[in-house]
Amino acid sequence: LANTHNIANYPGVAGHVGGDALLKVMREQAISFEANYQRAQVFGIDVQGPLKKVYTPEGTFVSRALVLATGAMGRTSSIKGESEFLGRGVSYCATCDGAFYRDREVAVVGLNQEAVEEAQFLTKFASTVHWLTAKAPQDGDAHVRSLLSQSNVKHWNSTRLLAVEGDTSGVTGIKMKTKGEADLSTLAVEGVFVYQSGSKPITDFTGDAIELKDDGGVKVDETMATNIDGVWAIGDIRNTPYKQAVVAAGDGCIAAMSIDRFLNHRKLIKPDWDHS
């Protein structure tokens, strides 16, 4: 979230706001309700027993309830200019940032299912979606056929993205190399969406106690509770397909209400409205 340059799809946020600014508002609001904010690197947890322990270089934190919200880690930036323009034209989430590129040209890099689906989403906004793939996509894939049938999609087959270029305003273009061609090509785009290997939930600090799904995300029930009593997980650490700030916030609300019931031994969650 901190790397997001503009957010316009979060309820209650007027206009566009940067991720850092939104996080600052959230943090200050939590502190105003007497939350004890601590900034520390977690290197391990102990969730056996009624008291959960979180180990950090600054000390051990102990509580009756623990929420895992460490998110997911994307691949290491490997393309020249990728890190420099992250949040200023380079993105890993079309559903988050696609609306900012209405009537603009963008590039989508990758051949996996996420790349295909995100490129399809971008066709609703971008004037042209340039799809770069290192090899030919599968002919029998219905999603690929649907994407290539769009009038505003240009497919660059056997093409590698070499560099992202730009200036103080953000991304202005890319350099790419197509197999069989001697020279590099330059393409003017304002957005570059990279989907080369996806993201991995950050769970290395949890050990073997927390049950994971086959895709690496933490397994939870409808209340965001894990397999361990007193431990919940929210946001991208669950490897949800909907990687949005508002979705993570919704997870947090569900977990908070579940924790209130857990700590106060409530059988039911009290509704916010009365049907009488």
UniProtKB/TrEMBL annotation:
Residues 37-252 form the FAD/NAD(P)-binding domain. It is an enzyme of class 1 (oxidoreductase). This is Thioredoxin reductase. It holds the Pfam family Pyr_redox_2. GO terms for molecular function: thioredoxin-disulfide reductase (NADPH) activity. Keywords: Flavoprotein, Oxidoreductase. It comes from Rubidibacter lacunae KORDI 51-2. It comes from the Bacteria.
